[in-house]
Amino acid sequence: MIGIFDSGFGGLATLHFLQKILPEKNYIFFGDTINSPFGNRSQEKIYEFTKFGVNFLFSHGAKIVLIACNTASCVALRKLQIENPSKKILGVLIPAAEEALEKSRFGKIGVIGTRATIKSKKFNYEIEKLYPKIYQPKDRRAQKIPLVFSEAAPLLVPLVEENWISRPETTMILKKYIHNLRDANVDTLILGCTHYHFLKKIFARKMGKRCQIINSAETQAYRFLDYLKKHPEISENLSNGGKTKFFTSGETEKFLKIGSIFLKKKIAKNAIEKIIN
After folding, report:
1. Largest CB tally within 10 Å, which of 1, 66, 93, 223?
2. Which domain holds residue 118?
3. pLDDT averaged per 10 residues in sequence order, the chain, 277 residues
4. Residues 72, 14 within the same domain
C-alpha cells in the first residue's frame, strides 16, 4: 500500500490526484486532525507527531509513505529518513521546488505557507541547491540566480479545515497575505501547504495571470508517478485493488463530512477509523 500522512485534511488533495493517476493502487491515509494545524507547533512536537504518523502507516502495511504536509516535510522528513534508512519516506518539498524552478520565467519565486514552513527556510535552501541543474531563464531580463520571497499565512489552514473556502473573509485574509508577494512581482508562487490546494483558484485570481501557481499537492502526486517509473522495483511491490483505508486522530464524523468534500467523492463510513496518538 501507499501510505499518506498529513496534519489534517490537506493531504486528501494529494490522495485525490494519486487516485486519478494510479487508481489501481491501494492506499492508507492518516490525517492527524486532533493536532492540526502543525504550523504553529514547536519543531519537537511536529517531529513527534510526524514520527508517530509515519510509523503508524508502516505498521499497518504501507510499503512507502508520502508526507503530504509541507510543515512536516520541512521539519521532520530528513531526520526520519536518516533514522529509517531501509524505509521509503518521501516529502512534498522537493517536487514543488523543482516544479517552480522549471516554470519560473524571471527567477522570482514566492512561497506561502505555515509559520513553521517559512521559518525553516527549507524552500529557500532547496531552491538554491537545485537551481544550477534545473533553472533555465525564459527571458533575458531574468535573475541569474532565483530570488525567493516568503510569506507566512497562519490563518489559512484553520479556515480550510473549517471549510470556509468560499467565505469572503477567507478571500480578504488571503489577499492580505499575498500583498508583499504581489509587490515583489513574483512570477511563480509555491502554495507551500497542501491545504492551499483548495484555495488555488483564489490565489490564481488575486496573483494575476502572469504568475504561475505551483500546487504542491498536485505536483507531489505527479512527481511520485515519475518516481515509480524510475523505480519499477518499488512499484511492483505496491499492492493493487483500488482500495483506500482512512485513519484520523479526530472525530470520524467530521472527517467523513469534510474529508468527502476535500477528496471530491464520498468516503464510506466503514472506511474510517479513529486512533489515539
Report:
1. 66
2. 94-216
3. 94 96 97 91 96 97 97 96 96 96 96 95 95 92 92 94 92 97 97 94 96 96 95 92 95 91 90 88
4. yes
Claim to verify: residue 101 and residue 212 sit in the same structural domain: yes
* Alpha-helix runs per DSSP H in 28-185: 43-59, 70-72, 78-83, 93-103, 115-120, 122-134, 156-161, 168-177, 179-183
Q: 142 with 59, same domain? A: no
Is the backbone of residue 121 left (phi > 0), alpha (psi -120 to 50) or beta? left
Whole-prediction pTM: 0.92
Q: For residues 76 and 148, what is the distance between their CA atoms, to the nearest angstrom?
A: 22
- What are the DSSP calls for 110-144, one per residue? EEEE-HHHHHHTHHHHHHHHHHHHH---SSTTS-S
Asked if 142 and 176 count as a contact pair (C-beta separation under 8 A), the reply is: no
Rounded (10°) angle between helices 216-230 and 11-21: 40
Residues 232 and 209 both lie in one domain: no
**Residues with catalytic roles:** 69, 193
Same domain, 58 and 30: yes
Considering the domain architecture, whether residues 126 and 235 belong to the same structural domain is answered as no
Domain match, 195 and 249 both: no
* CA 97 from centre of chain: 12
Q: What are phi and psi of 97, to 5 degrees?
A: -65, -45
Alpha-carbon distance of 151 to 173, in angstroms, equals 13
| Domain total in the chain | 2
Query: Cα(194)–Cα(15) distance, rounded to whole angstroms?
Result: 11
Q: How far apart are CA 110 and CA 148, in angstroms?
A: 6
Q: Is 87 in the same domain as 126?
A: no
User: The CATH number of the domain where 124 resides is what?
Assistant: 3.40.50.1860
